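User: I'm preparing a small set of examples for a lab meeting where we compare how different chains pack in three dimensions. I only have the primary sequence for this one, and I'd like the structure in token form so I can line it up with the others. Please keep the answer compact; I'll paste it straight into my notes.
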Amino acid sequence: MKRLNTKFDKYLYAGVTAFLVVTAALVVKALLDNLGVLGGVLAAVNSALAPVYIGLIIAFLLSPLVNSMDEFVFIPLMRRIIKKDKKASGIARGFSVTIVLILALFVIFGLIMMVVPEVINSISSLAANLPSYYKNIVAWGDDVFKSNPTLAEYFQNFSGTMYEKLITWLQNDLLPESSKLLSLLTDGVVNAMSLLLNVFIGIIVSIYLMAEKENFCAQAKKLMFAILPQKRVDGTLEVLRETHTVFAKFISGKIVDSLIVGMLTFIIMSIANIPYALLISVIIGVTNVIPFFGQYIGIIPSAVLVFIANPSKGVIFLILIIILMQFDGNVLGPKILGDSIGLKSFWILFSILFLGSLFGFLGMLCAVPVFAMIYRWVKRWCSRRLAKKGIPVETEYYRKEPESRKKSVDKKGDR
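Assistant: Understood. Below is the structure token output for the 415-residue chain.
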């Protein structure tokens, strides 16, 4: 069979290329013109999948506890009662999931019952004692700046201005707006019920995920082997395993670290007789989950709260909390997290700022493990490329001047 005239091939290729480019441009333009519609579709899909997201988060957080229950408690117990390993493992998994979920619900309910009344009491106490707190601050300022009348007068004017603004805000903004709370609560009932329903369905989804996680993983691997070459599958699975390990170690370690920091804060604040000890401990513990910035986010409002109640106690609080944060940053945190991250402080700061600006609180929470994985992948790719070129992969080599690098390469070649 003869081939078509080749002198027209280039025109044919050019025409096909132009057609594809125009088609792609029209598709992009249609997508941009209907961006609002696409956003609405994506929002509807995310809303529909919200229970699944919640279930995935619950299963991810509780799976280590379920595995520990399986390994150390229920599987050895069930194997003594039931001789069939598969049946014993299935029953043990059911007991583990049930016990872990009940314990988690009890802990969450207990924290809510402990924290919410304290928050309400603290806010009420702050509003009721605000005039006496203002007098304490003025007296403290007079005592501190008694040797410098100019600074004392400036401090009195500044504190008086802030006090008047706070009183004005309470009387003109907060109290009148409180009359609208009932209508806002009525409008928010549907959203609250929707959230509770999503959480309830998410718990059910998490039960299935934790009970059948090995089966789901096997099905996912089966699908991957059906679609991708085996070499690609092996590499992908290795990346997924490492990502899971980094995320699990970091998130679980950060939660444990924050719980310990919160409890230590409560103990220290109680011993030092710092006001609002429980409220401050909750603030410090919750904000400590956020790497790098979390400590400052919790310390600043807590210090202001204590300083308003008692200026001298505010100074003591700052000293104690700084010591505690140093202990957490240099001893407790590294002991719990270990080397699961492997990032320098600059990259931690960069990842939190970048992903936090894009995705808010969730981005700040997941920024460090996400960037840690990206950093590892880039580092490995760079090392492979350098190794193929016969260039040293150690970073220390690139600190040298060009002539020194050339000499070290020549010496390496001579060896």
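A couple of notes for your slides: The radius of gyration is 30 Å. The longest helix spans residues 345-389.

User: Perfect, thanks.
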